[in-house]
């Protein structure tokens, strides 16, 4: 399973990248706002750090303008993935941009049928939002499992990019289901390393080591 980082925070991306944890990056207009940076500048900087796909999202409402924005975003670097919303206009833009050879991430997916139609439109990635379904008391992980099932039934090559990940449990379950990619905030990725028994065990080792009076260096 690939790990994408869901942020436009360059320092956080660089820190995780040093550990080989970053297979790609996803951004969206809300994350650009949070970064306080210009979209073209920050996206270029991210592409200078990460060699895998970096999603940059269009903001136009109609297909022609989405296509124009997508082409402009794709000029930033060869690893740009153009992110379009799962609307009819977004699907039209997806088809045109993917036919032109660009990677396309279709975002804001909340149903298996939306994922099916995005695959038909040539999406490289489909982004089902787990946390936002959980927010309205619908199990977001069921959506990941349904899409996996449907894509496998027909051999669709669109990659399932599980998004709106809020907990480490979401990542565990996505790995069990077989999502191709997860995108998560840096804090959630770092939390994968945490376990209370690890901390408890280390405390005990540290105390016992101090009691030995020994040194390694
Ligand atoms: O990748 C989509 C993600 O940024 C949405 O996450 O937590 O705002 O639902 P969230």
Automatic annotation (TrEMBL):
Pathway: Carbohydrate degradation; pentose phosphate pathway; D-glyceraldehyde 3-phosphate and beta-D-fructose 6-phosphate from D-ribose 5-phosphate and D-xylulose 5-phosphate (non-oxidative stage): step 2/3. It is an enzyme of class 2 (transferase). Its EC number is 2.2.1.2. One of its GO terms (cellular component) is cytoplasm. GO terms for molecular function: aldehyde-lyase activity; transaldolase activity. It catalyses: D-sedoheptulose 7-phosphate + D-glyceraldehyde 3-phosphate = D-erythrose 4-phosphate + beta-D-fructose 6-phosphate. It is found in: Cytoplasm. Its main location: cytoplasm. Belongs to the transaldolase family. Type 3B subfamily. One of its GO terms (biological process) is pentose-phosphate shunt. CDD domains: Transaldolase_FSA. PANTHER family: FRUCTOSE-6-PHOSPHATE ALDOLASE 1-RELATED (PTHR10683:SF40), TRANSALDOLASE (PTHR10683). This is Probable transaldolase. The active site is at 83 (schiff-base intermediate with substrate). Transaldolase is important for the balance of metabolites in the pentose-phosphate pathway. SUPFAM superfamilies: Aldolase. Gene3D superfamilies: Aldolase class I. It comes from the Bacteria. It comes from Haematobacter massiliensis. Keywords: Cytoplasm, Pentose shunt, Schiff base, Transferase. It holds the Pfam family TAL_FSA.
